[in-house]
Amino acid sequence: MLTQLADIIDVTVFQDLPAVNSPEKTAFFQSGVVVRSPLLDSLASASGKTAELPFWKDIDGSDETNYSDDTENSATPNKVIQGEQITRKAFVNKGWKESDLASELVMGVDALTHVRNRTDMYFQRQWQRRVIAMSNGVLADNVANDGGDMVSDIATEDGANATAANKWSRSAFTTAVFTLGDAFGTISAIAVHSAIYKQMVDADDIDFVEDSNGSLIIPRFMGKAVIVDDGMTVTAGSTSGFKYTTVLYGAGAFGYGEGVAQNPVEVERSASQGNGGGTGELWVRKTWLLHPFGFQSVGTPANVNSFTLAELATATVWDRVIERKNVPLAYLVTN
Questions:
Q1: How many CB atoms lie within 10 A of CB 62?
Q2: Dihedral-angle region of residue 148 (phi above 0 means left; psi in -120 to 50 means alpha; beta otherwise)
Q3: What does the pLDDT look like over 108-124, one tens digit per residue?
Q4: Is the separation of the CB atoms in 30 and 22 below 8 Å?
Q5: How far apart, in whole angstroms, are the C-alpha atoms of residue 331 and residue 141?
Q6: How many CA atoms lie within 13 A of 282 on its CB side?
Q7: pTM
Q8: What distance in Å separates the CA atoms of residue 192 and residue 229, rounded to the nearest whole number?
Q9: Engineering a disulfide at 306: which of 47, 52, 90, 116 sits with its beta carbon 3.0 to 4.6 angstroms away?
């Protein structure tokens, strides 16, 4: 007898299973680049497409003090000002037909967990792609609207003939990190393409450190976690070769919250499909609030509700609302 999706997926049990591959298990999350908070969880669960993230602006340290005297002059107090970051939620979903899962359903008694693992991995990858897309959009906004004060671009358009001056080096890294000025110490992780990671390894720049459980080897550069992801931006040089964007992240560069969709999981059966043979579909829905600190979302997405990956990577979606040194991000572009 043929096993159907409805035979193995009890929606309530499926929802209660712990996530096998959740965003919390990505390198971005484990390195502290993305921080989840109960506040953002509650905002993600609240009604509406957007959320307001208020913050107190820093006191101006360049404003000279008053000097006390014994006259009757009165000093005028300064005020503290609150700013606001506007963020837009992402309402995402994905469905799988039974034909795609048919070969998986006979894996044994734990088929439900197996399918949960498969869907979790898909959403984990999509979540991580959103982090990278947002990072690219912030970079694009910075170049277009803030004079590129967060980026060091030493790449040549003739990448095939790039010299050491155009490639990864400690000097190139420090130039990028010091775009933060005296806040350079906030950087805690570096996300690189594997081609750049190879340059780091070849230069003997990588230290390998065991995690607290002794079960995972973490690559580090100058004490900072190294995230290797081939989803990092690669662009073709206008003459030859390629240019690679490396992102330097501080702890809490992104905030993250997760809401609960009205129907997070559904199994749907269509009797007429398959020429009457019937098909089954599994649908999973997520509500994410993922946002880069110090920026607000602007504009309206093409589909009204959520920005796509392509939209998130553009300058028109972002606007910086705090001073540069308080943004825990920096960029390095090399060959």
A1: 4
A2: left
A3: 545 666 777 788 888 99
A4: no
A5: 13
A6: 24
A7: 0.82
A8: 6
A9: 90
